[in-house]
DNA sequence: CCACTACATGAGCATATGCTCAAAATGCTT
DNA sequence: AAGCATTTTGAGCATATGCTCATGTAGTGG
């Protein structure tokens, strides 16, 4: 056995965690061995490993497509004519589906960003997308441009609630264009004023020219994120539901056949809405029983031509 | 809790292993929970997880460059003017360095193969390279061409001892050109006869035109792989050592300043030797104390302009 | 149809892991 | 420099993991 090494003096705490995780997962050593090698207590080694996992320093990636998931991907492609489909294995009914689709969505985003041609990638917001971005590996993407589809000022005035674009830009080192706007303007007139600003116009134009777009999908029910996060009021939500609201993408509410409502909060939405894609690719990242109607509507209205979801959701979209 | 699911009737054993590993590593569940969810005994779940790891269905990847390794990479780049350098964290003095460099080399090869332009990748053989290829993820690389630098018939007549190119082609679905040749011909004349064959000529030409080359590096001492695998005799090895042999790349032996010996077994080598790269990239994948002199020689003779190695080896190459 | 090999299974157990808690260290404010 | 809050540390312990071994089960060749 080796003599206990002194820990490198110039190692950051994260370095130590990464090294411990490397020894544990790649080297297959026990935490006891690692502790001895690194000259620390076993508990400290244990904490470093667990920290590395929770901080995302080490990633687990399934390199084997599960045949059941592959079958669903093929079926979804056929049924809805999609360009991009990934179905993540479920983690069981009790678990937040975000946990399973985030790593898969991250791989898909990496694949897109690996393109050597300069691309414009537009992104929405939301918990799911945020989780996915956290799992993306660091890359050098100076050639690409990232643009947000949606304002980054939430109703309480704080910037960046689920600040997807900034995190993404951090990770992949690309030029990025957030929208210094409220998500919803106070009135249609106020929104028009914002839109008249020159830099805003340019950013929105960039967003509309995106080659690839990644968005979340919100359900319209009592748990509607757009309502829970305080973007629209309960009253407004009810009105939209009565008008046939079925789902929402970057705050734009559409009905069950995927047509945007020309009504209510949509008149105040200050962001860029996603239009049925032609050459470009629009990938929805969403899973969960509650989101099935919203996804079905977006798919039948061809608002999206790509999907990252999990097994139960895929199954639900295929049933019937 | 969920009712125990019946295992899918159409799931292959590997599918089950992959699913168990997904639930374990990505889902963070205990093997007990997994066993219940999948309707099997805990031991079975345990075996599935361990199988998924050993079969490489699940990969562990460090997403955080250790500062000490990054520093060495920078230093090696500066010292030897390299285009590609990766230094893997060590797994401790007792552990086979192959284990640590294989995953890093795999990432590097994936990066090269991700190129959308068609490329020609030449590969050597060896334990290390073979281990790296096993860790490469499956890809669709129909646009690329893979070519072997070295015959695939070993001295005992069996084809494919460390059949790197076939495995690689399997994984990445690219056109591939092995060399249906013995590694060493019986005599220079016999070698010339092989080389006169038309298909052989074309393959060798392809190999010489490679954009990127990945090779192992063999030491020339009592543990020389070229000797242990029975390619040359002890007597021949001694003669080469006396003539100044310092290392070997795809069976071609070079001296301490990286010049190929015009002598002995080199006169019978039927493969394509690696020449000092100009536009193209030649990456050596090798680590271990024993390989340091061979690596140093290859580096100072500019036989290679890329290196994947581990921490102690990098340190040794930088010391002095 | 039987004997044989090779591999899969579950029980039992030694060991590894991760959680909780109290003590110690660190940093920040006054 | 003292006091307070926050974080880090290791001990102890309950639980999870993985190994060994005895037994079972399928597949193969006589």
What is this entry, summarized?
The structure is a homodimer of 320-residue chains. Chain A has 13 helices and eleven strands.
Tags for this model:
globular, Arc Repressor Mutant, subunit A, 320 residues, seven-stranded parallel beta sheet, Rossmann fold, disordered N terminus, 11 strands, homodimer
What does this structure look like?
The structure is a homodimer of 320-residue chains. Chain A is an alpha/beta fold and 320 residues long. Chain A folds into two domains: 13-54, Orthogonal Bundle (Arc Repressor Mutant, subunit A), CATH 1.10.10; 67-318, Rossmann fold, CATH 3.40.50. Chain A has 13 helices and eleven strands. Chain A has helices at 13-26, 31-38, 42-54, 67-80, 97-113, 127-134, 164-172, 188-196, 198-208, 225-228, 234-242, 292-300, 311-318; strands at 58-62, 84-88, 120-123, 145-153, 175-182, 212-215, 218-219, 245-249, 252-255, 281-285, 306-310. A seven-stranded parallel beta sheet of chain A has the order 2-11-10-6-3-4-5, with helices on both faces. In chain A, strands 7-8-9 form a three-stranded antiparallel beta sheet. The model of chain A is unreliable at 1-7 (pLDDT under 50). Chain A binds a DNA duplex (30 and 30 nucleotides) through residues 30-32, 41-44, 46-47, 49-50.
Strand ordering within the main sheet of chain A? 2-11-10-6-3-4-5
> How much of the sequence of chain A is in beta strands?
15-25%
Q: Largest interface, with Cβ-Cβ < 8 Å?
A: A-B, 47 and 46 residues
Name the CATH class of the largest domain in chain A. Alpha Beta
* Backbone CA Rg of chain A: 22 Å
How much helix, percentage-wise, in residues of chain A?
40-55%
Class by alpha and beta content of chain A? alpha/beta
Unreliable residue runs of chain A: 1-7
What's the number of structural domains of chain A?
2
Mean pLDDT of chain A: 90
Q: What would you say the CATH architecture of the largest domain in chain A is?
A: 3-Layer(aba) Sandwich
**Named CATH topology of the largest domain in chain A:** Rossmann fold
